[in-house]
């Protein structure tokens, strides 16, 4: 158990959790209060197991304690800016994103893969109860780009799937937070997600791809990446609809 906090600050409040900073007389923590696991199909035991493995590699903060029944996770608070907050040129930030993606994709972890097709169907079924007409439209919009889903495990690597610059802490070594959507999947989805989440300019996209290819020796299929980007945009709309109806 930790000492009673002298100060509590709200750090972030998102779709699947709320993050609080707990400051005691001697220590600093982050308490993540989980929510919407069923809606967003988040497996908390798998999330914790993954973070414990990554913490040993200094890629994620240590898991100090957690309770799936009560819905919380305790980790140390790092007094370091995020990649979003530091003063670097946009192209250097793109390089850092490329390096981070390359490092994540090279890690071998013991986590079972999940199906993107099943995950999408779950989201649409959840949304059906709130907004059936929108689900009909979304299914139609998915059809032209649905072929990428078949590639989900064609080149399986660990993917973060939500790599905002705000999720990269500029510690030494850098640590990455918010792994709830992570899993084994297609690197092009992770790259596309990173591009869209961070709203990268065309110049930043070119730098990210170029540097990623240099570090991984993986040739990025630009046409397929473009299709994954369209899919990410579609998926983000589904998430936004779900969050609107569950918040």
Give the biggest sheet: 5 strands, antiparallel
Tell me what portion of residues adopts beta-strand conformation: 15-25%
Pairing-aware structural class of the strands and helices? alpha+beta
- Uncertain ranges: none
- Tally the beta strands: 9
**Helicity level:** 40-55%
Can you tell me the CATH class of the largest domain?
Answer: Alpha Beta
* Whole-number total of structural domains: 2
Spatial strand sequence of the major β-sheet? 1-2-3-5-4
Q: Please state the CA-atom Rg, rounded to the nearest Å.
A: 18 Å
Structure description:
This protein is of the alpha+beta class and 247 residues long. The two termini are 31 Å apart. Strand 4 (65-67) and strand 5 (72-76) form a beta hairpin. The protein is 44% helix and 16% strand. The protein folds into two domains: 7-76, Phosphorylase Kinase, domain 1, CATH 3.30.200.20; 90-246, Alpha-Beta Complex (Aminoglycoside 3'-phosphotransferase, Chain: A, domain 2), CATH 3.90.1200.10. It has helices at residues 37-40, 44-56, 90-106, 116-128, 132-142, 187-197, 202-216, 222-246, and strands spanning 7-13, 17-23, 28-34, 65-67, 72-76, 157-159, 168-169, 175-176, 183-185. It contains eight helices and nine strands. The relative contact order is 0.15. The strands form three sheets. Strands 1-2-3-5-4 form a five-stranded antiparallel beta sheet, with no helix packed on it. It has a two-stranded antiparallel sheet with strand order 6-9. Strands 7-8 form a two-stranded antiparallel sheet.
